[in-house]
Amino acid sequence: MSTMVVWFVFLAIMFLNNAGVAGQADDTGFVSIDCGLAGNSSYKDASSTLTYSSEEAFIDTGTNHNISAAYVTSTLSPHYLNVRSFSNGIRNCYTIRSLVKGEKYLVRATFMYGNYDGLNKGVIFDLHIGVNYWKTVNISNPDKRTIAEVIFVAPVDYIQVCLVNTGLGTPFISSLDLRPMKNSLYPLANSSQSLALQHRLNAGPTDTTIIRYPDDPHDRMWEPWSNYPYWTEITTSSHVQNVQNDIFEVPSVVLQTAVTPVNATPANTSELKFFWLPDPPDKDPEYLANLHVSELMNLTKDQKREFNITLNDAMFSPGPFSPEPLYANAVYGFKPVHGRQQYILTLKATANSTLPPIINAVEVFVVLQVSGIPTDSADVSAINTIKSQYQIKRDWYGDPCVPKTYAWDGLNCSDAVSGSPRITVLRLASSGLTGEVTNAFANLKALQTLDLSHNNLTGSIPAVLSELPSLALLDLTGNKLNGSIPSALLKKSKDGSLTLRVADNADLCYDGTECNQSKKKSNSSKITIAIIVPIVVVLILAAAGILIICKFRRPGSSKKPSINPQNPENPDISSTMNTSLQLENHQFTYRDLKQITNNFQREIGRGGFGVVYRGCLVDGTQVAVKMQCDRSTQEVNDFMVEAQHLIRIHHRNLVSLVGYCNDQNCLALVLEYMSEGSLQDHLRGRARGGQPLTWRERIQIALDSAIGLQYLHKGCNPPLIHQDVKPNNILLNAKLEAKIADFGVSKAFRSNEDTHVSVSSPVGTKGYIDPEYFMTLRLTEKSDVYSFGVVLLQIITGQPAIIEGTGPNSEYVNVTAWVRQRLSRGNIESVVDARMQGDYDINSVWKAADVALKCSAENGAHRPTMTEVVVQLKECIELEVAAGRNHNIYSGNSSNGHPSGVCQNGIHAIEQQLVSITMAGGPIMR
Ligand SMILES: *[C@@H]1O[C@H](CO)[C@@H](O)[C@H](O)[C@H]1NC(C)=O
Ligand SMILES: *[C@@H]1O[C@H](CO)[C@@H](O)[C@H](O)[C@H]1NC(C)=O
Ligand SMILES: *[C@@H]1O[C@H](CO)[C@@H](O)[C@H](O)[C@H]1NC(C)=O
Ligand SMILES: *[C@@H]1O[C@H](CO)[C@@H](O)[C@H](O)[C@H]1NC(C)=O
Ligand SMILES: *[C@@H]1O[C@H](CO)[C@@H](O)[C@H](O)[C@H]1NC(C)=O
Ligand SMILES: *[C@@H]1O[C@H](CO)[C@@H](O)[C@H](O)[C@H]1NC(C)=O
Ligand SMILES: *[C@@H]1O[C@H](CO)[C@@H](O)[C@H](O)[C@H]1NC(C)=O
């Protein structure tokens, strides 16, 4: 380690009277804002018992939105149901007043996108705390909850939390909390540095409950953290005491659970290991870590728990460390570390230890240097008075001068060489100011230039302006000021210390004499009348003209827009239409369809495209007819292009397009009829009388679908990307052969249904959309691979793409995260669809799960191609066939090492005891 790092151990000092130091912190001073809450309302949050209110008192910009109903769940914390978004202005800020300067506070902001704007798009923006950068918020997933927290010392008696638009989407926020902290807590947060939270983990619990207020009187959020089966939980029901002058006051309930390695024999060589990665990697953040350790067992005389703690290769604890029973010990660094690719903490038992190491809780912080000093508070209050008095509509939010990049336009500030920046120049020329010149200008004591020219200011010039010590230029040209110029200003102007401009103020008296105002008044009222009359006449004429024009236009405009193949505006289509004789054979008229479907008698489904009817061609072939009426000309044209394309594509694993129709403003696709319905029906138990698919059937369906997709990607010219791979679009025929449906159709039919979104946004269905595509809007075949991975996981698990959790605070979670989380504990049985009743070859299932997780990798480049997927799935089938299974062979066996052969690859978490502190698909935030 290049920098000398000093570490400090905070040991318990046993005093009997310190029980309950954590005690009942008074909750006065808590500010809990539910951003986007309608009107001036508030409610009591059931889980935290805290009262959340709307932001009326804290901000006056932004608009409220409810998140999309698709993301509303019964277990979602209410503050996520609505957001405030800021499409105007670079920097929008919440201002929380009534802080005490120099006191310590915790501020927490939460974010859940929930497609509130219907754009289904990722967004990245910055957060500032006061005038300092805090964090970059990167929202790439509509149902992911993001929590930002910072502990800081208030530099002034208010704090502003600013959302800064960095050009990567509209900032928004779900909630904002302020919690006063005792100054003695987190001593490393001080007036020159703040602590931004990276992780706060409660080791032990395997459920999803986050501990916060009232269990933690400071309302920190402790996320559950475990690494089953490598770590095991130790708990106690006894109270764990805070030490005297505890600088962390971790609540007992957090410390009452701990983890220790399993099978730690011999104990004196065992270790606990975990790591985190710099985030963002390119910024090389500086980290501080706190380890909270408490002995929870009653140790006998010959038992000893002692371990060394190292960070990467350097000692973190100054020497061997033995946690005290039921006391809140902490080991923490106070010199930040940085410059590493990863940060690995190792707790390693010493040679004399008879017990393995334990850990109860971990906190990791990024150190933020407090570099910006806010503008002088008297200046801030004066400029805010000016802003509100004249209702200045400029991007004037946050601190007026700091940071410089976002300083308010129209003013200059002095540099903060020592102390706070001051406003030195204020230019409000031609800003539509009306009313009198406010005395607040005179409170900008460092003002050198004040330009109020070309406004509609009235009244007299306030004499207090002459008291501004540094004022060198006062420009009042082109207003409606009256009265006489204060003599003190005239004097300064005469002695050359002030440049005073007052021209074009008709009623202003330069020499102190009375002005004749009545004459001017009558003149102006005459002018007003002269102007008003002609305008009214013109308006009446214009209105009449509109009526006349409408009358003549009407018959023409009501004409039905025709869909003419010879449409000269679209020569490409018309020429194809004329030359492609083959195509004509596939064209049906509305009357044909009526006949085929026996007057649209049997409706067999409804979807994004419209209604689906069952029909029968003259030759007896069964078909499905998908109908949609009332489409625009553009949509019809798109459809025609697409239909011509699709009709040429034939493959055993793609649903064939028999023909199409664009008659009577109705579009229709005539498709091969798939008698067994969709894979979705089978997974949901809505087919074959609820009889579940066997593993052999499932894996065959997966393979068929993969081959279909592979053909779209590699066999078609130009290649086709499906964009909406999901079980609904995988159809089964009587032999349970799977075929991909609706390929290319998503492009032709962008329906209004919420599963499909507009051209500039990702197309697809929630739960299946490739997160990378969602972020970048760059569509590749790997996006289909991602969706296919989700489908494959559903085939294995029988779960929906988005699973509702079960715990009291649990949320919806994507099936990929759900499977990852369970498989990291090494247990395949816990994810496999129970309806198969264990009737599958476990190697085959492992391998399929491995393929599925690779397909759903975050990074598209890491996903396999469909060709590779096909090869892997064929091997899964071979494994299943070769197994010659007996139902019980593998049950209870999977913990004794892993199935042999290929299936061992891929799920590295199982092989590795090193656990990421972040954990893929980790604890669910509430
Ligand atoms: C909002 O409610 C508070 C307290 O109930 C009240 O003082 C305030 O005037 C209200 N504001 C508006 C705009 O209704
Ligand atoms: C959000 O939903 C609530 C309750 O359903 C409703 O009162 C409110 O007006 C909605 N807000 C917006 C911005 O649509
Ligand atoms: C935002 O998050 C996405 C998904 O995690 C990631 O791929 C991307 O690089 C991030 N962008 C930035 C600017 O950090
Ligand atoms: C430890 O000892 C105390 C008192 O001696 C007892 O109350 C407690 O239950 C014991 N705890 C365990 C885990 O045995
Ligand atoms: C623990 O640290 C001590 C002192 O720093 C050292 O002597 C000892 O070898 C270390 N033990 C292990 C197991 O690393
Ligand atoms: C281990 O125990 C032995 C005997 O009790 C003692 O001499 C030695 O100093 C201990 N070593 C450490 C590292 O504590
Ligand atoms: C002043 O107000 C008049 C109407 O009252 C308006 O026409 C004019 O544009 C305003 N002048 C300025 C400079 O804003």
TrEMBL record:
<dbReference type="GO" id="GO:0004674">
    <property type="term" value="F:protein serine/threonine kinase activity"/>
</dbReference>
<feature type="domain" description="Protein kinase">
    <location>
        <begin position="598"/>
        <end position="877"/>
    </location>
</feature>
<keyword id="KW-0472">Membrane</keyword>
<feature type="signal peptide">
    <location>
        <begin position="1"/>
        <end position="23"/>
    </location>
</feature>
<feature type="compositionally biased region" description="Polar residues">
    <location>
        <begin position="559"/>
        <end position="576"/>
    </location>
</feature>
<keyword id="KW-0677">Repeat</keyword>
<dbReference type="InterPro" id="IPR011009">
    <property type="entry name" value="Kinase-like_dom_sf"/>
</dbReference>
<keyword id="KW-0808">Transferase</keyword>
<keyword id="KW-0547">Nucleotide-binding</keyword>
<keyword id="KW-0433">Leucine-rich repeat</keyword>
<feature type="region of interest" description="Disordered">
    <location>
        <begin position="557"/>
        <end position="576"/>
    </location>
</feature>
<keyword id="KW-0418">Kinase</keyword>
<keyword id="KW-0723">Serine/threonine-protein kinase</keyword>
<keyword id="KW-0067">ATP-binding</keyword>
<dbReference type="Pfam" id="PF07714">
    <property type="entry name" value="PK_Tyr_Ser-Thr"/>
</dbReference>
<dbReference type="InterPro" id="IPR001611">
    <property type="entry name" value="Leu-rich_rpt"/>
</dbReference>
<dbReference type="InterPro" id="IPR024788">
    <property type="entry name" value="Malectin-like_Carb-bd_dom"/>
</dbReference>
<keyword id="KW-1133">Transmembrane helix</keyword>
<feature type="transmembrane region" description="Helical">
    <location>
        <begin position="527"/>
        <end position="550"/>
    </location>
</feature>
<dbReference type="InterPro" id="IPR001245">
    <property type="entry name" value="Ser-Thr/Tyr_kinase_cat_dom"/>
</dbReference>
<keyword id="KW-0732">Signal</keyword>
<dbReference type="InterPro" id="IPR017441">
    <property type="entry name" value="Protein_kinase_ATP_BS"/>
</dbReference>
<dbReference type="Pfam" id="PF13855">
    <property type="entry name" value="LRR_8"/>
</dbReference>
<feature type="binding site">
    <location>
        <position position="626"/>
    </location>
    <ligand>
        <name>ATP</name>
    </ligand>
</feature>
<keyword id="KW-0597">Phosphoprotein</keyword>
<dbReference type="Pfam" id="PF12819">
    <property type="entry name" value="Malectin_like"/>
</dbReference>
<dbReference type="GO" id="GO:0005886">
    <property type="term" value="C:plasma membrane"/>
</dbReference>
<dbReference type="InterPro" id="IPR008271">
    <property type="entry name" value="Ser/Thr_kinase_AS"/>
</dbReference>
<dbReference type="InterPro" id="IPR000719">
    <property type="entry name" value="Prot_kinase_dom"/>
</dbReference>
<keyword id="KW-0675">Receptor</keyword>
<dbReference type="InterPro" id="IPR032675">
    <property type="entry name" value="LRR_dom_sf"/>
</dbReference>
<dbReference type="GO" id="GO:0005524">
    <property type="term" value="F:ATP binding"/>
</dbReference>
<keyword id="KW-0812">Transmembrane</keyword>
<protein>
    <recommendedName>
        <fullName>non-specific serine/threonine protein kinase</fullName>
        <ecNumber>2.7.11.1</ecNumber>
    </recommendedName>
</protein>
